[in-house]
Amino acid sequence: MGGGAVVLAGAAGTIGVQLAFRLAAEGIEQRLVVSDEFRAPRLPGGARLPEAEVVVLGPDPADDDMDIAVDDADTLVIADIAARDPDPLDLLAAHGFRRVVHLSQIGASAQGISAHAQRHWRVEEAVRASGAAWTVLRASILYGTLVHAVHDDVLRAPAGDGRAAAVSPADVADAATAVLLDERVHAHDGATYRITGPEALTGADVARTLSAATGRILRYEPMTAREAYATPVPWVHDLDDWISCCAAVDAGVFEDVDHTVARLAGRPARSLASWLDDYPGELAILRGSGPAR
């Protein structure tokens, strides 16, 4: 994958953390770009990942800090574009990367229903125009988002009866790792992949799966966008993002199932039930929030 370092923008995000660990396990030199030192991925006990340099960049980074992040780097991976993270386009403009891999969102377009998808489209356009070899992986909604939306044993969302082929963050990270480490030169240049789970789930389907995993009766309760704006959602950083994403679910943006994980990672994507089995700690947010049945 080239001899220079990988600059991992959004390294503190859900996918970024998993990707950082995978690249570290392969001995890949990384620059982990984060907005805060304490958010950088670390080994148990707090040790830094091997072959990984943490670079802290604020919203208006100094030229010297930017130079440290990109010096002698070969590949830029854009794993997250959260508002609290440095703008990845600043990194893209600061250095002539040979290769760029962008973890985008399904539905990305200038007219995307989801506000986050519109922002990803802006990044996609810049990546394609950068002159670097590029690959875009458009991921579906992550399973963890579904779990976090449950409060008092009720999954409330302005998503109607829409279906979403939600996906495990580990599967997104595995697919991205496969692209980055593929020994076939240029095998993924100019490719745009859709990364989904193996089944399209309604809110009621999610509630049934979580009921089986927790031993409690959970239910799905659709709501209107107006009700969602009036309802406090503690875990949501941007209410417009959350509500517009749910609107995209209702419109069917995320309902198509794709088998890209199997093609890239060499194994089928995890179902929601199998993800909960593999990562039981993800249910911690639900434990103790309701009576057992």
Automatic annotation (TrEMBL):
Coiled coil (residue ranges): none
Domain of life where this protein originates: Bacteria
Residues of the NAD(P)-binding domain: 10-182
Cross-referenced InterPro entries: Ergot_Alk_Oxidoreductase (IPR051604), NAD(P)-bd_dom (IPR016040), NAD(P)-bd_dom_sf (IPR036291)
Name of protein: NAD(P)H-binding protein
